[in-house]
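Hi F.,

I've been meaning to write this up properly since the lab meeting, where we talked about keeping a consistent format for the predictions we share between groups. The idea is simple: the sequence comes first, exactly as it goes in, then the structure tokens exactly as they come out, then a line or two of notes. No screenshots and no reformatting. I'm using this chain as the first example so we have something concrete to point to.
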Amino acid sequence: MAQPKKPACPNFSSGPCAKRPGYTPAALADATFGRSHRAPLALNKIKDSMAMTKEILKIPADYHVAMVPASDTGAVEMMMWQLLGPRGVTVCHWESFGGGWWTDASKELKLGKITNKNADFGSLPDLNSVDWNDDVVFTWNGTTSGVKVPNGDWIPDNRAGLTICDATSAAFAMDIPWNKIDVLTFSWQKCLGGEGAHGMLVISPRTVARLESYKPERPIPKIFRLTKKGKLDKAIFNGSVINTPSMVCFEDYLDALKWAKACGGLDGLIARSMRNFNAIKAFVDKTPWIEFLAKDPSTVSNTSVCLVIKDLSKAQVKTLTALLERNKVAYDIGSYRDAPAGLRIWCGPTVETKDVEALMEWVGYAHDKVKSGEIKKMRIVVTDGLAAGAIKALQQAGHEVVKKKISKEDLAAGALAEWDAIIIRSATKLTKAVINAAVSKPGSKFRLAARAGVGVDNVDLEAATAAGVMVVNSPLSATNSVVELALAHLLSQARFIPRADRAMREGKWPKSELVGHELAGKNLGFIGFGRIGQSLGKVARAIGMNIHVYDPFLPDAVVQQFGATRHATPLDVFRACTHITIHAFLSPQTRHMVNRDLIGAMPGVAPDGTKCGNHVVNCGRGGIIDEAAAAEMLKSGQLRSLALDVFETEPVGKTPLFESANFQGTPHIGASTIEAQNRVGAEIAGAVLAALDGAAPPGNLVNKAVQPKFAPAKARL
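Output, unedited:
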């Protein structure tokens, strides 16, 4: 079966939800940036949004509407804290957020007479048994369970208690009987696809009477207070919000409200949501392996539609949702963390029905692939460390990820055969023997080697390509960190920082011996001028250095952009420069490239006449510098200083370099920053997922001539 057509918009999250069709940031052009929310222009926008809310939702004239802090959660809790206490309280809940209101009432407010009416995911509690002498807290629509109250018939008109209704995923998509509601809350981010952090509050005259007649003994925070001198603070419901709002978010909300009116108001919005729901229902009706989580058809939500896939395990469902996300079919449709494994698809008014229809075709397609075993969990071994976020991303995609060391002996014996992929740094060596041993084992699954970093000289690319093993790396992520370390070494060399530090620790004050030099006006030679070299070149130019380059693969346009001097050979660069930085890959051609001859050719005197000596930095690859020759040049004085972050043999043992006070070393920490590690992890995780899907990103695939050992259909979509 061919892949179905993808939805035009893959945003099916249940919060924040999809923006309205056709939305662009241009909708915010009239926002009152930099203005007080009390200024007439901004205040009128707030008033307009409240008036339009009341109009579209058909809220009775004697009800009050306000924006309050902290989204729907803040709106519910401010009313619970101010209203509950004079009567018994019943909390009706059947999903995660409603359960939170029970926790508030029982554990935080510690109310006296309190009744818990709850039900498992998929069902409603017995609403007809509610004692209406109590105040009743409930959700109209269970966002995490996909179960809604079918109507308000269970709420009597002559109730003694108040109803406090969390309608965050119902407002603007379901019909609310206002005569049954005393408090209703929602947020902008749900059915209208607005922004978060702002809550909406609707209160009835009965609620106003309670606010003005009952003063709780508990402290009421300022952001919860709706009364002033014992009376309702009507200014809050007339645009004077409790605390400073985002006027950008208000502008966004106004845009959504205008769109809602253009759709035909509440009736039009409900119709849009129902069309979306019916597209899913049509799929469920004809598909035996899927069903609604809601057990009673009259309670199935038309916004947060929750589904159970009966013939897949929890891990398989996770594989299915990860597949949909990676293929940009649907984002964020896995069931809520507390709910049974399945799907939760948002079908609010801002979603287009044709996108829901396309999504369901893909759900069927992906289900069949997962069920047949064509899409299966992969086993990935991480041998040299990886950021926790990257491991989590791989696991969330349904893969098994194991962090473990594998000995050289086990690698040589074919230990990688049991793994689909290995993620390494520089420590693990994937030689020809290791690769061939892995792929030649009967039943071998080994198909991918991922280098979390740039250099792949610890992977035999020729052997991997011949064996059909893809090799990917993460060339983008560590650039800034390596640049900063190389710059630190250049500055440290110029000002003798390591020597000064050591002398002071020994109780010395060698100020007159440590006269350094400025980098401004000096020639900085680059051996290799790729991504890292160019980034360092920008910084070097900014501090006044002259750029000289040897890179046979570099377009002339880049040289011109930097105002650099291009050289035909490395020797020419060394002859011209007192400062050299290495950014080349290690290869047979570059091994020991920097030797006595090149170092001996350096001038020692800068163009401005400064006798600054010669300085070399290598934060690229170990082995490019002949370390024995460099040690001799340090001893003779031809090389004033040498700074290495990479070495021919790592970890470094005894070396003559340590005998020189002008040598400074770091233990291969170029990418060892928090930021780089997180970026490297994220980049390599994305490359691994794509490669296992059979389509490694061109920017990450190293051996581009490889013919993968397994076709995509045998691995993953």
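Notes:
Residues 60 and 178 are 7 Å apart (CA to CA).
The first strand starts at residue 64 and ends at 69.

If this format works for you, I'll send the rest the same way.

G.
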